[in-house]
């Protein structure tokens, strides 16, 4: 379903690094709150984890993985009105898994992030009759 008109915006870029022991999801949410991010997204992320908390597709509960993992992908939308972020991690044998990012993903050595923010747009999560879930809705920011 295409929502028209699609609002446009200038792009602001933020770079940050999370150190050992930081919680990837909690710190992304903290960033969104501190900078009042209403429409943001993850451009890129590289780093490593010792704990991965991931909710796999079509599952109610998250899975806990412990060990040493490389972050091979982090994508999604970020907003004080609700975020939706997916992560993929690989272990030392190259096994890769991914799903919804949950709190409890603990940084091992570093997580280097580049985040985009659209200051003239607002992301919200609202009920969708087709999916039965709260889904992304996009609005122009009111002056």
UniProtKB/TrEMBL annotation:
This is DUF296 domain-containing protein. Pfam families: PCC. Residues 7-139 form the PPC domain.
